[in-house]
User: What shape does this take?
Amino acid sequence: VPNPLFGKSIIWSQDFHPDILEDLFARTYRYTHQRSNSMLHNKRFVMLFYEPSTRTRFSFEAAIDDLGGSRISTESAMHFSSATKGETLEDTIRVMSAYGDCIVLRHPEEDAAMRARDFLQSQDIWTPIINAGCGKGQHPTQSLIDLYTLYKAFGRMKDLTIAVVGDLKHGRTVRSLAYLLGKFRGNKIHFVSPVELSVGYDILAYLNRHETPFTQSTSLDPYIEEVDAVYMTRTQEERFENKDDSKRLKGSYRLTTALAERMRRDALIMHPLPKVGEIDEEVYRLPQAAFYQQSDNGVLVRKALLEMMFSPN
Ligand code: NCD
Assistant: This one.
């Protein structure tokens, strides 16, 4: 039987069964010793990005290049694609599906990747879609990188206590990560945010169903010595209805050096990046700083993911 990701779209992080994650991370690790191969020979990727991206797009492109694939791309589809003329996402996706073997999609609407996949499948077209970040919904490939970073540091994906801090209402990376953490026994999440930026009830309901304990609070202080990782996020200014709120809330949480120094020596300070002031500059000197490990792991994890999608074994 082919591996379960072969030929599949990557839409939600809750679709990743724990066994798939083990397999994916074993392959990821192999790519630390082998930079390139010809796994994606004759495969063309359409990079369709309707929102800004640095890491996600460049690391996908680096991964595709190293595995011998090719790509066509627009980095600012809102401005340079027919979206400016009013074309629907469905039309654009249908057209692009004939120009490449996979579409990597970043879009401001939460359900865009799912809609793209479903529209193609309704026409019997099975070109896989990869969700590269959709609105305030999900960013599944980022959460794979985050979980791999934890796995590499602690040798396990279970029995981890993680504080996630910041804009949990609009941030898609935390949402995707919470779905992954909920799949393993013994994980515990402390959600820390201003009340206005609390994580969605859909996430809390999922964690309850999966018997994953969590707390919600406005201060990181009580948990700082206990946690295996602090996962910081930025205020997602562009997703606020009221810009004054975003300004007011922006400075309301911060990982200061003094706070970070109270963390366990083996704990991790994580951030999906871009960070814009919510972590003290000096923190990168601390042994716990892991945010560049996360971005470094981006290419490796994406290579392993593409390998599983495009090769049956
Ligand atoms: C994140 C995103 O796009 O959701 N960036 C990323 O892909 N690492 C985080 C963010 O924009 O805050």
Observations:
- The mean pLDDT is 96.
